[in-house]
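ok, trying the design again with the full structure, not the truncated one.
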């Protein structure tokens, strides 16, 4: 046959070396990731290219790039290595408690307020899992960045990711108690056009808000005096009397309960959005990822941050512990 046969162990080492270099586009960075020397990686990639009879990488003194053959081979390598990792993780679950490193991406503010406080209980329950939490608001690429699970808020784009809804996020119009003084009363949604508004750019686009009341739905034009993707900045601006903001109950529940903020147009709210746990598609979900998602579903059931009578919490919904469904199967929710 045209392809030289290598020992399976050598082939897997070479594929891992090539995959690391191809993702980093740097021998030095890949060497740090794998904790080997750059010269070792270079030898392994060269051995793989010799066995395949094709150049996988273009090397210059300044940069590394993929050849056409390398791009195709990387896709297959990633699939093989991922399935091997999944198989190891699945079988390891039969040897006792789930174990291993678990990488989770969580929204920055929600993660700090409502996931970080749960970590000690999770670690006590699963002491053999090493938890690595990344707090950031951008949508990470789970496969390329090697995250096991991501927690996301809002509508999910249609994709092959598997998602599980953990809770509902509700958002209300709020302002400081002193804010409305000296201004025309807000009696109906259209009145917002005459008031300064504080806009959360992650959920809301342009200069409009969509509001709902029962089955009614209306879109109103607003005048944003502050637009940011940081919800805490909006909360502080609202507390400072700068205007009306649409904020999630997980952020302002305590403020509403203590009276630091009040609801504006109490019969109206922004459309609800979901809190989801998502993970890459796989027939073999690792035990460590499964128990983490089950743990969050258990602890976040019924929107526990809605303690205040001011937010009128609904009766807690029962949450199952079954696996998620593909977004392609059900669409974004």
């Amino acid at each position: 046959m045209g392809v030289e046969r290598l020992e399976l162990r050598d082939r897997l080492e070479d594929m891992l070396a090539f995959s690391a270099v191809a993702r980093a586009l740097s021998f030095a960075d890949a060497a740090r990731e794998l904790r080997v020397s750059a010269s070792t990686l270079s030898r392994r990639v060269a051995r793989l290219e010799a066995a395949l009879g094709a150049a996988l990488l273009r090397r210059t003194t300044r940069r590394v790039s993929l050849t056409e053959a390398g791009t195709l081979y990387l896709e297959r390598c990633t699939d093989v290595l991922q399935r091997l990792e999944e198989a190891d993780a699945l079988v390891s679950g039969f040897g006792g408690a789930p174990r291993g490193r678990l990488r989770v991406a969580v929204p920055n503010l929600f993660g700090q307020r409502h996931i970080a406080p749960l970590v000690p209980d999770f670690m006590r329950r699963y002491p053999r899992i090493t938890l690595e939490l990344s707090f950031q608001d951008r949508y990470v690429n789970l496969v390329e960045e090697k995250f096991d699970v991501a927690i996301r808020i809002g509508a999910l784009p249609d994709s092959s990711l598997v998602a599980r809804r953990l809770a509902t996020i509700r958002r209300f119009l709020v302002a400081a108690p002193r804010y409305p003084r000296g201004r025309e009363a807000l009696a109906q949604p259209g009145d917002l056009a005459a008031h300064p508004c504080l806009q959360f750019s992650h959920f809301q686009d342009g200069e409009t808000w969509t509001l709902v009341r029962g089955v009614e739905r209306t879109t109103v034009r607003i005048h944003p005096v502050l637009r940011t993707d940081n919800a805490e900045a909006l909360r502080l601006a609202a507390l400072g009397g700068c205007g009306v903001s649409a904020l999630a109950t997980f952020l302002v529940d305590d403020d509403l309960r203590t009276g630091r903020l009040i609801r504006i147009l109490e019969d109206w709210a922004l459309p609800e959005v979901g809190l989801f746990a998502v993970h890459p598609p796989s027939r073999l979900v690792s035990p460590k990822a499964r128990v983490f998602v089950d743990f969050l579903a258990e602890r976040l059931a019924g929107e526990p941050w809605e303690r205040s009578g001011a937010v009128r919490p609904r009766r807690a919904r029962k949450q199952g512990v079954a696996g998620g469904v593909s977004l392609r199967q059900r669409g974004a929710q």
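Keeping the full-length input from now on. The first helix runs from residue 8 to 24.
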